[in-house]
Amino acid sequence: MDVVVLVKLALDTxxxxxxxxxxxxxxxxxxxxxxxxxxxxxxxxxxxxxxxxVHVVSILKYGPIQRRLQEAEGLLREVLAMGADDAYLVADxxxxxxxxxxxxxxxxxxxxxxxxxxxxxxxxxxxxxxxxQVGPRVAAELGIPVVTYVRELRIxxxxxxxxxxxxxAVQTVETPLPALVTVTREINTPRIPTLLQIRAAVRKPIGxxxxxxxxxxxxxxxxxxxAVPMQVxxxxxxxREGTVDEKADRLVxxxxxxxxxxxx
Amino acid sequence: xxxxxxxxxxxxxxxxxxxxVLIITRLVKEALGSGAPISVNRFTRFITHEVKSIxxxxxxxxxxxxxxxxxxxxxYTLIYPxxxxxxxxxxxxxxxxxxxxxGLIGAFAWRVQVLARSLRVHGKLxxxxxxxxxxxxxxxxxxxxIALTATTLATSILPGxxxxxxxxxxxxVDYMLVAIFYVRPEVNLYADFDRALHDIRMPFNxxxxxxxxxxxxxxxxxxxxxxxxxxxxxxxLDACVEIGACEESCxxxxxxxxxxxxxxxxxxxxxxxxxxxxxxxxxVVSDDELWACTxxxxxxxxxxxxVRHVDIIIDLRRRLVELGRxxxxxSNLLLNLSQYGNTMGTPNYGRHEWLRELxxxxxxxxPNFQYLLWVGCMGSFDSRAREIVKALIEVLREAGxxxxxxxxxxEETCCGDxxxxxxxxxxFQEIALRNIELFRKYGxxxxxxxxxxxxxxxxxxxxxxxxxxxxVEVYHHVExxxxxxxxGVVKVSMGNIVFTIHDPCYLxxxxxxxxxxxxxxxxxxxxxxxxxxxxQTFCCGAGGANYWYDVPEERRISHIRLGQxxxxxxxxxxTLCPFCNAxxxxxxxxxxxxxxxxxxxxxxxxxxxxxx
Amino acid sequence: MAMGVLVVxxxxxxxxxxxxxxxxxxxxxxxxxxxxxVVQLGRYxxxxxxxxxxxxxxxSFSETLTDLVNRGSYxxxxxxxxxxxxxxxxxxxxxxxxxxxxxxxxxxxxxxELEVVLNSFGNRAQVTVKVTGRVLLMAPPARFKPSENPxxxxxxxxxxxxxxxxxxxxxxxxxxxxxxxxDAELIVAVGRGFRRREDLKLAFELAEVLGAExxxxxxxxxxxxxxxxxxxxxxxxxxxxxxxxxxxxxxxxPQHLAxxxxxxxVVVINNDPNAPFFRNCDYGVVEDLYSFIPVLTxxxxxxxxx
Lengths: 264, 612, 306
Fold this sequence. Notes:
The complex is a heterotrimer. In chain A, β6, α2 and β7 form a beta-alpha-beta unit. Chain A is globular, with a radius of gyration of 22 Å. Chain A has helices at 34-50, 65-81, 100-114, 134-142, 195-200, 211-214, 244-257, and strands spanning 3-6, 9-11, 18-19, 22-23, 30-32, 54-59, 86-90, 119-123, 146-156, 159-165, 169-176, 179-183, 206-209, 222-229, 237-239. Chain A has a nine-stranded mixed sheet with strand order 11-10-9-12-8-1-6-7-13, with helices on both faces. A two-stranded antiparallel ribbon of chain A has the order 2-5. Chain A is built from seven helices and 15 strands. By secondary structure, chain B is mostly helical. In chain B, α3 (58-83) crosses α5 (129-154) and α18 (383-398) packs across α27. Chains A and C meet through α3, α4, β9, β11 and β14 of A and α3, α4, β5, β8 and β11 of C.
């Protein structure tokens, strides 16, 4: 069974760089989106159980491309060291800052070019955008069923049986293959490849592609104007004086003013 | 007509001599096989080490007593034909032997106590019935050897042929057992007595991989079969005769974690004996058994026959890391190391910004620095540990030495110790190489650090990755402070506070740094030593990457240690490691004794007692 | 710009009309799922309501929504946030070849363009995006307040397009407390200031009134084992980033702070005025938690009407 796993080289928002009051995207490091590690782990486990290949597909979304390419390859090496067989990386100026409809079209185009695939696995969302769109969009683009928020996955013949983690319920569903599933953090604990394993993964191929290679021309629909970091600066207002009731009142007033409480 | 008794005596004598020859042959054969150089020089150092072990611990003294007693017994046996007729000779022999007999009685009593504890430990760890049987048998045999040796020495007081024959019979049995059971432990000690605690197996040098001499996929990091252990580790498995000193001093065992170093080593020795060196050690050792170890080194340090428990544990952890058998917390540690370059999972840039306000310059701003101040992950990010660094800075400023030091700023990352002790040797070596490159770039000749883990790794581990590091002097801040105080650069005043010292494992046991902290405290206040101190210190529970993960346990190691320290009645516990400080402070808070005792670093003690 | 704003959601998601009203001069239509008072929608200026009363799965919903958007030529589609919409709406967006912007804070139509402000980069930045053409917006309804603008709402039942590709085998309710604290928006965290395990109920009551999750510092989970490890916030516990973090009886050790420092607003309640946490809070209250928490809970219950 051949599994395609979607891996985002996400902006490491834990290390967001700031210059002149704006987020400096270009100098913020990338990382493998955390939940996509779970997706890779699950793909590798599926392959360990039923055999086949694990292909990684990744779209470079942050520039500058020339500098990011090496960084991206390093990260994909880590993913390959987890047990994937090969990787495809699309890097093209037209994709920097593009919206997810474009991303999904590019991914779908690569998956179609692979020819044979049975299962596509993605993380439920990425740690930077956290929009969770790409999985369902790719499924729509490929015209295959999608099962989101999966915390348990089983392949039964030509069907996939999955437990979905919803807000107030756990739903067990099944759908025929090929299908796309998005997984949650709970599905597994991703293995951390050792440095030696990462180095050994140099032998696995990373196919670098541009939109021209895929025969695609796509037009951006959105444009990012600015990104302003949220300041985490503590106010440090300590209420020391007064009766218990007065203190409670002052705290509640403060929380209402912060917009954290809405009196009904 | 030949006296029948005398004939028997000669036959027994011949048998004894034969057995003695056997013992010596085996000693020589095993020693040759151990790879240790056989020379007069080494032998002398070995004997000196043995004699010095009396000072180390009671077990050391008892071990020496047994070694001495067996040797003396052999000597007596050999000289019997010439002296057995002399009444006086018997009295002299007994007189000489009597201290050793006392030692043997002590050793026997120790073994009884070990047996009792091992029964408890077996119950707790739920080891197999077969293991229990074999363990008790081995302990019984060794108690037998002690008793028999004591008998051979004690009977030396009795003259007469009959007693002589009794003595020679007992000795024959004794020597047989010695030949079987005592040769390997002693040879192991001979081979290993001078191997430092930090000198663990280095399965590869990453430089060979980077420079293309070795293919990464051909290198194995951990041990998947017993045969992949180094010779010194295998010898040490064969050497264990369940003396129990490791188990007695192991903080993991004391805390009720699923580990006893004795059981671990014996399980592997038995595995090797039954299914051979091709066996997979993880078949008999559980993951948590390996994670339970804080790598404090008390087991190896106290083992009278030089068994290398920690080395074996780390080799097996390396295998777990290779197999990806890490829970979320351990995974996060490694992820943070690769993503952030530090163990705290905090952005690395700006880690020394706060030091700028104190007037500390970076290596770029102060290229003529004499000492690189390695602040470390705790010192850089942890607000409590920052206080320690701040205290040190203030003392240095007082001494007018602030311009002598510099920090790496954003270029400082992890020292690599947590990666190495967790078992990710590759990542450790990569970090080490990167740091060494930095040190070279800035011409670092001397390093000061507040953390014994960085201290140990820079001083001992780095040199094995790149010998260039041998030219770099590494100081723990206590050594540096001692120098300042003794030279009178910094003057301190005497107060009336009662202190006790919590020695960090990686400072005191691994590197023998015990004196400086005592010299300093003796000039500032009263020192009340805790029972386990100096090189015999008891771990705080954070070592071996334990700071970042948890293991099932009955009691927290930090709580046990705090209890020991508080028994001294001291008003302040002096720490020398930011991790120890965090663990003990946390224990004091949880136990609600913050008001009774302060946990402070030596730098803070000095700052509080500066005399201008 | 083309015409029409379509708001999607149940009657409880009416707050989204507040966002729709920022497109001045545009008709606001509502795809109402389930039952609801249509008159109430009219009061806020919704002129047409499509009512979908049958429960359908995400795949069918995405098809139905796509059809409706194409039929009505809506250029702005606004939906609430939950796992159902997070699955269905992107599929519709892809069929419509339109961008979907999530966690929207504000919109500003400028000429032919639309400026959208949203939370992104892991909630660490506010991003302003310019869009031309059709766009789907996703936002928590509680973020907006519609103003009154009564009209007569017409109502039209909506026939769903049902596509059966994913079969639901079974559904089981979730045990309470199974929520991931990493994702919680509001957290009440407890520490060693609580003297007995039973006393934690004070914190649980407060959390219930707020709709918050309960977290804890290390001693509570690791030493005392009063709460499971899922609640443990800190360096070796979970890392959280809620909008509001209320720490009760936690002294504020660095190991704990490491797990919560990205919280937006931090409230600290502790009877020790020297607790280090007070140096890292937005609002602090120096008071005994045993007397303070019940009062606070009561006060909040009054104003939140829960």
